[in-house]
Design a protein that fits this description.
single chain; about 160 residues; alpha/beta; Rossmann fold
C-alpha cells in the first residue's frame, strides 16, 4: 500500500509556501488566478491516516491519496491565513510566456531555467484530487480538518 499525502501543513510545516503564494514587499504574489485547488491535509490528520493504514494491513498495492475533503484554493488559504495582505496575481499566459522566454538565454549558458515552461505548467496544472479511497479502504476521515488546522497554525504563530 502507498499513501500519497497532499500538501501537509502544521507542526512546523508552513501552510503558505510557493504553491499558495510568495511574500513580496508586504504583499502576496500568486502565480495564476488564485483559483488553483490545493490538496491540503493537516499534519495530525495525516498521522491518523498512517495509523489507520497500519491497522488495516492492506497488501495489494493500493494507492491512497490522503487529502482533506474540503478543497480550498490559493485565494481561500490567503483569505484564512494571509494576514490581510494585498494579493497580486500574475496571469497564467504571462507566466508561461516568461517561462518560455527564460529558457533561451539560460539554455545558451547550459543552465536550466528555474521558471521553465514545463515547471510552470506542472506546478500550475489544474488537477482534481480524490480522497474517497482513504475513507473506503482505511475508514479514515480528517478529525481536525483544514479550516481548524489553519486556525491552529495561524493562532500559534
Amino acid at each position: 500500500m502507498t499513501l500519497r499525502p497532499g500538501q501537509i501543513f502544521g507542526g512546523g510545516i508552513p501552510l503558505i509556501n510557493g504553491a499558495v503564494a510568495r511574500g513580496v514587499g508586504g504583499r502576496w504574489l500568486v502565480l495564476g488566478d488564485g483559483k488553483l485547488e490545493l490538496p491540503l491535509v493537516y499534519i495530525d490528520d495525516f498521522a491518523d491516516s498512517v495509523l489507520a493504514a497500519v491497522e488495516k494491513k492492506l497488501s495489494h498495492g493500493e494507492i491512497i491519496q490522503i487529502i482533506d475533503r474540503e478543497h480550498l484554493s490559493q485565494e481561500d488559504v490567503l483569505d484564512l491565513a494571509g494576514g490581510g495582505r494585498k494579493i497580486v496575481r500574475v496571469p497564467r499566459p504571462l507566466l508561461f510566456a516568461l517561462g518560455k522566454f527564460s529558457e533561451l538565454p539560460l539554455g545558451a549558458l547550459g543552465k536550466p531555467s528555474p521558471i521553465a515552461l514545463y515547471r510552470l505548467q506542472s506546478g500550475l496544472a489544474r488537477l482534481t484530487y480524490d480522497g474517497d479511497r482513504a475513507e473506503k479502504l482505511l475508514g479514515w476521515t480528517p478529525k481536525v480538518g483544514v479550516r481548524e488546522g489553519i486556525r491552529r497554525v495561524t493562532t500559534s504563530s
